[in-house]
Amino acid sequence: MSQISRRRRRTALCxxxxxxxxxxxLTACGGGGNPLAATPYDAAAKVAYGVAGGGKADPSKPLSVxxxxxxxxxxxxxxxxxAGRFVRGELSADGLSWHSTAPLSAGAHYxxxxxxxxxxxxxxxxxxxxxxxxxxxxxxVAFGPDAGTYGVGQPVTxxxxxxxxxxxxxxxxxSNLHVTATPAAAAGSWYWVDDRTLHxxxxxxxxxxxxxxxxxxxxxxxxxxxxxGGTDKPLTLxxxxxxxxxTDAGTHEMTFKDNGKVVRTMPVTTGKPxxxxxxxxKVVLGKEQYVRMTSGSIGIAAGSSDSYDLPVYxxxxxxxxxxxxxAAPWSExxxxxxxxxxxxxxxxxxxxxxxxxxxxxxxxxxxxxxxxDTMTPFDNGFGDWNLSWSQWKKxxxxxxxxxxxxxxxxxxxxxxxxxxPSDPARLRPEAA
Length: 432
Fold this sequence. Notes:
5 helices, globular
């Protein structure tokens, strides 16, 4: 992507970005009860989507987004699949169009979030969901995140090519999705976020320096009448050190731990009243060395005492809506003493760069004693750890009764498969 495009995509940033970027787009870095509640206008009449193929999209064709030539321009576009993986794309220099630069996945569900700005600077938004045609009519599973090394808080995700709504079908699917860790992790479980998306986590964080293997045994298994599992690509992840950044909004201090040992404490400032930072456990989603953050992207009127337009360095993202840990040299006098930000965790340039260089995707960032709401589990990043283990297990389809039914149905599926096995007609089924 060109430097012009990168700069254009970042102009929508406030202390958070207007939408999760595909780069993750930006909204605000605030908690509940702040100007984020003043939702920008619905830009549906301004935005046009082009998905080649009509109906379900052809995954080999680019996705395009355009706006009317009436002074409206696109400030940010984010396209993600159900596993939270981003589609790379490019915004035109004039802000009138955006197109994907990588093929879409087959049999996937995508959410596209578009942020716009009219000729008067008013922000607008439009969200669209669409499906791509599957490689075939079978049930396929795409595991996430991409192979690599992550922090010990990173959940595993599974995206299904076909929705599974009934309890029996879900139990069959879940019983054929396997996660193992070496050294062994605590007991873990899948959680059905929706009909197509599952997350997996242990009861406690993954072990440090572990190998995590994820695989499916759905191939040939009957999930329901006319739907059989296909062959899926396994996934191997690794974890690094157990990194935990613990921010106390009451004492205005962050404690940074590496494998349980305190290695640094840093004065910080968090969200002031009306913009309070979210409490709870968050997971690092990505890092950007530089972003431009503007108050207009969260609905704060120009000229307001709360308006801002700032270059921000060493920005570590923890929510899709735009909460960051970042350098805030303008508030160093308040760091360690008062909460004065619009929801992000601000620190000195030196501390922010150190933090940026010592964390990776999947590391744990926890906030306590803020006036903000608690981080939600699934709709604003990876808040999975804010559910207790007993709550998490309720998201599994494998209760005792469901597990027995799954085993019986899987066995029946294998027998049925033998009656019409491997003839040619047999069906088989990313940041920013």
